Amino acid sequence: MARGSAVAWAALGPLLWGCALGLQGGMLYPQESPSRECKELDGLWSFRADFSDNRRRGFEEQWYRRPLWESGPTMDMPVPSSFNDISQDWRLRHFVGWVWYEREVILPERWTQDLRTRVVLRIGSAHSYAIVWVNGVDTLEHEGGYLPFEADISNLVQVQLTAQTSLGPVSDFYTLPVGIRTVAVTKSQFLINGKPFYFHGVNKHEDADIRGKGFDWPLLVKDFNLLRWLGANAFRTSHYPYAEEVMQMCDRYGIVVIDECPGVGLALPQFFNNVSLHHHMQVMEEVVRRDKNHPAVVMWSVANEPASHLESAGYYLKMVIAHTKALDPSRPVTFVSNSNYAADKGAPYVDVICLNSYYSWYHDYGHLELIQLQLATQFENWYKKYQKPIIQSEYGAETIAGFHQDPPLMFTEEYQKSLLEQYHLGLDQKRRKYVVGELIWNFADFMTEQSPTRVLGNKKGIFTRQRQPKSAAFLLRERYWKIANETRYPHSVAKSQCLENSPFT
Fold this sequence. Notes:
The chain is of the alpha/beta class and 505 residues long. It has helices at 57-63, 90-93, 109-113, 154-157, 217-230, 244-253, 274-291, 311-327, 371-386, 413-430, 471-486, 498-501; strands at 2-3, 15-19, 36-40, 43-49, 75-79, 98-102, 118-123, 129-134, 137-143, 149-152, 183-185, 190-192, 195-196, 199-203, 234-236, 256-260, 297-304, 333-337, 353-356, 390-394, 435-440. An eight-stranded parallel β-barrel has the order 14-15-16-17-18-19-20-21, surrounded by five helices. Strands 5-4-6-1-8-9 form a six-stranded antiparallel β-sheet, with no helix packed on it. Helix 10 links the parallel strand 20 and strand 21. This is GUSB isoform 4.
């Protein structure tokens, strides 16, 4: 069962896999090796959304002791995918509530007969609260989307269990690709392997037509080819960790990652409480445990646009950042702020200042001539107070592909292009001083909940949702390749091997 409006049962697809011994630490990407086998459960699942108002936990458990089809109609649902755009049922489009997924699985006989085999069910992602039953038994629960969770189900699928505890240890091993690099931060630079690194890249969302947030290999390869065409060397996983396959591609292609947890929406004082703090720390543990072995990940981000001007937010962010540093002392930690520099209570605890600002869009809209002054003032104020390197982590403008107007007006391709040009002039004044990066919002248009301010989703992408370029994509491509050619860390277009392609060499 998955609860949420965005991701279905498994954004990556659940996997059922057996191995000779339980993993030490667990939560590692399931891959086959001489000591382990994997059985992917991608494909069609039986599905039903519960539109009733009286769902009770006890009734749910009683209901699930029999097949889903016996209790009412079901529909086919592909996994991985978001369920929202799969059917023509308007109720599913914005549904938030309990949904059921069910599939019958036939296991290899050796998994069920050989007591030396440990059988583990691993869910790549389910948003945002999940309860999993195996053979009618409530097996595991998980709160929070975008991250994997797992359970040992050997005792539910194996026979003759009496001798299981006396078998002794059995070897279990697998291989991981390795990348070696160092990361450090000074008061004005971000260093990779001891040399200054400038982030020129994008913010992304895992989103596309029909499949929603569901993982899709052709789409992933297309996106990385576009990143390479663009000359980008980095992206931020805004506002949640991305699929493990995405992180592996970043290692392979040499794309540097700011890895962000699902800490978005911390906008009110009541959110900064001990219950939220405990859960936030637990989520950071899951993020670090999953992604710590990826050399592409160079910084953790613990939140996006929290209400960091609040006194309670200062302590909250201090504790989350300190906890993250204890989990991984080797990487810097940040959060993404849109607060006033003088009021931000979390900024003293980060290693790098990440700023979101939308001059001439949400503020002084239409006045492109103000951007350079506003941007210079922003950077100077933040740097004077905190003496830390700064990344422009978001900027951009909504653009409907094919809309044109000269002089530029909002929502046209000319306006987006002109806005970016003004930002770039302002960034160039500071990027050889203490500004260490720029990430456009957004790589591609993405779907959102409908509202009067959204025209079929967020249209700030430099590519459409179908991955076709707007005019601003060509402007950004020219800029990024110019920056790359000015540095010793160009993003190669020729080869695909990680260590030959990456800024880590």
